[in-house]
């Protein structure tokens, strides 16, 4: 069946909008493009790019002779990746050039076989697995080490958000593409990889502008999110308290507001009278106004909730009980340490941002002196601006603490970068001069000599929160620092 007839000039043809031909669960779109070349050219790179990005069944070119009769025909199609012994995979394959009147191809049978071959190349899809199937993409002009380091963290974030990570793709261009972030060749590679693996989601390690997210989403016909959206989604799932939920929703709306784009003027409101006829408030303006109104309501509710927290802080200050706050990168064992020290049961998981809501417990030292010890939300580098602003009120509680216990994961290869990221956030909170104690957790995962050397170099206390015997020295140092910093009553 012929869907469209397109007339171009000697330079190009313009393909129509194909959004009505959705991919669904198929690897190919179900459309074939047959066009002519007037100058005896084979399939061009532009032809093959359209074939790849649009996921067409076939791209065929027919040579037009000077007499107006058809000459040779050439057909290209997407290629399944080659097996490892065959070397690097090709994105497309070309059938042999043949005279038009001698060309014979059982098209439906050929495409059905191609679809089957493409479907069989990726990892088998478990129909009972309801998780999103994601590709992680990093495009950076920075160093390769920093890019790989950030991509590893993105993997952990995706795992924490219950995303099935299929593969990762990296590019280090000389300069970023203003529209697609990556070059046209690389985005074609991403598209083919998504097709081969059956991906449903693209996650970019870099923050995308609204225009970039829209352009990539349109060309890939996939859900496209960036690092900030992934973190916000994790927070939305983990927030349990009312204040935490309000903070996350507020951050999401502030992040969403600049990304709202015009969809249609069909629903524009019409007004009557001279000077009032024509489009009134567009759908976009209505959406933005509603988002701003909800942001205002949530900010008001957050201020009300903050009043209750401020009252609790005032009571703690009046009681003159010292306050110790545990801070650190996400998933370094802060909640585990709080549970062991206070014999409590704060939720613990080997996931990033497993704990979002602040937890406070009483801790009694051996000499019958008490403190309040608080576990805060884990930090992460490049924390989304709106999320940081939303949680700033909660993190203000750190202003009242008498000691910051900075917990770091000694077994993490990014140990020092994580320490620097936490210190940077503490500086943003104006806590850089607060008494601090660096604690290196998870020494059970490294050899003793490494733990000793790192602790000496960083002037830190080595512990394992899973081994209570290693906490005795930490307790004595905490007690000494707290009760020598201010004149607390015994």
Helix content: 25-40%
Largest sheet at a glance? 6 strands, mixed
Number of structurally distinct domains: 3
Q: Rough shape?
A: elongated
CATH architecture of the largest domain: 3-Layer(aba) Sandwich
Low-pLDDT segments, ≥5 res: 262-277
- Order of helical and strand elements: EHEEEEHEHEHEHEHHHEHEEHEHEHEH
Oligomer: single chain
CATH superfamily of the largest domain: P-loop containing nucleotide triphosphate hydrolases
Structural class: alpha/beta
- Count of DSSP helices? 13
Distance between the termini: 89 Å
Mean of pLDDT: 80
CATH C-level class of the largest domain? Alpha Beta
Strand order of the largest sheet: 11-12-10-13-14-15
Report the portion of residues in β strands.
15-25%
CATH topology of the largest domain: Rossmann fold
Number of strands: 15
C-alpha Rg (nearest Å): 30 Å
Describe the structure.
This protein is α/β, with parallel strands linked by helices and 490 residues long. The chain has three domains: 32-119, no CATH class; 133-233, Rossmann fold (3-Layer(aba) Sandwich); 320-485, P-loop containing nucleotide triphosphate hydrolases (Rossmann fold). The protein is built from 13 helices and 15 strands. The strands form three sheets. It has a six-stranded mixed β-sheet with strand order 11-12-10-13-14-15, sandwiched between helices.
Explain the layout of strands and helices:
Blueprint: E1 32-37, H1 45-54, E2 58-64, E3 70-78, E4 92-94, E5 98-99, H2 107-119, E6 133-139, H3 144-160, E7 164-171, H4 184-197, E8 201-204, H5 210-220, E9 223-226, H6 227-238, H7 242-256, H8 283-319, E10 323-328, H9 334-342, E11 359-364, E12 370-375, H10 385-395, E13 403-409, H11 415-428, E14 436-441, H12 448-458, E15 461-462, H13 472-485
Parallel strand pairs: 1-2, 6-7, 6-8, 8-9, 10-12, 10-13, 13-14, 14-15
Antiparallel strand pairs: 2-3, 3-4, 3-5, 11-12
Helix pairs in contact: 3-6, 6-7, 7-8, 7-10
């Amino acid at each position: 069946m012929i869907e469209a007839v397109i007339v171009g000039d000697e330079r190009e043809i313009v393909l129509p909008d194909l959004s009505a031909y959705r991919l669904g669960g198929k690897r190919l779109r179900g459309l074939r493009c047959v066009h002519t070349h007037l100058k005896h050219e084979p399939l061009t790179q532009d032809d093959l790019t359209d074939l790849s990005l649009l996921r067409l069944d076939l791209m065929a070119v027919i040579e037009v002779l000077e007499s107006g009769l058809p000459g040779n025909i050439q057909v290209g199609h997407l290629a399944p990746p080659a097996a490892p012994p065959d070397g690097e995979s090709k994105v497309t394959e070309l059938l042999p050039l043949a005279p038009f009147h001698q060309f014979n191809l059982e098209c439906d049978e050929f495409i059905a076989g191609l679809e089957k071959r493409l479907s069989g190349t990726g990892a088998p899809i478990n129909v009972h697995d309801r998780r999103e199937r994601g590709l992680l993409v990093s495009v950076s002009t920075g160093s390769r080490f920093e890019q790989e380091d950030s991509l590893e963290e993105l993997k952990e974030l995706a795992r924490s958000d219950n995303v099935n990570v299929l593969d990762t793709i990296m590019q280090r261009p000389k300069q970023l593409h203003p529209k697609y972030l990556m070059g046209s060749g690389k985005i074609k590679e991403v598209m083919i990889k998504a097709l081969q693996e059956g991906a449903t989601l693209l996650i970019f390690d870099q923050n995308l502008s609204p225009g970039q997210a829209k352009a990539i989403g349109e060309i890939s016909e996939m859900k496209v999110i960036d690092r900030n959206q992934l973190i916000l989604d994790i927070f939305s799932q983990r927030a349990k308290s009312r204040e935490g939920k309000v903070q996350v929703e507020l951050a999401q709306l502030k992040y969403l507001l600049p990304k709202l784009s015009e969809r249609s003027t069909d629903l524009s409101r019409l007004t009557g009278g001279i000077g009032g006829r024509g489009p009134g408030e567009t759908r976009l303006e209505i959406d933005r106004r509603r988002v701003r109104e909800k942001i205002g309501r949530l900010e008001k509710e957050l201020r009300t909730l903050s009043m209750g927290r401020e009252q609790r802080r005032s009571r703690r200050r009046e009681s003159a009980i010292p306050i110790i706050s545990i801070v650190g990168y996400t998933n370094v064992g802060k909640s585990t340490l709080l549970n062991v020290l206070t014999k409590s049961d704060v939720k613990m998981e080997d996931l990033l941002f497993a704990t979002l809501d602040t937890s406070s417990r009483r801790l009694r030292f051996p000499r019958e002196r008490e403190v309040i010890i608080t576990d805060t939300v884990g930090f992460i580098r490049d924390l989304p601006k709106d999320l940081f602003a939303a949680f700033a009120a909660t993190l203000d509680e750190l202003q009242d603490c008498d000691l910051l216990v900075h917990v770091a994961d000694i077994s993490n290869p990014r140990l020092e970068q994580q320490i620097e990221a936490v210190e940077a956030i503490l500086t943003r909170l104006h806590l850089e001069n607060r008494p601090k104690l660096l604690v290196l957790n998870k020494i059970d995962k490294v050899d003793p000599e490494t733990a000793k050397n790192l602790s000496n170099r960083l002037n830190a206390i080595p512990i394992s929160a899973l081994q209570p015997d290693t906490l005795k020295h930490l307790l004595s140092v905490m007690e000494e620092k707290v009760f020598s910093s201010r004149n607390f009553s015994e």
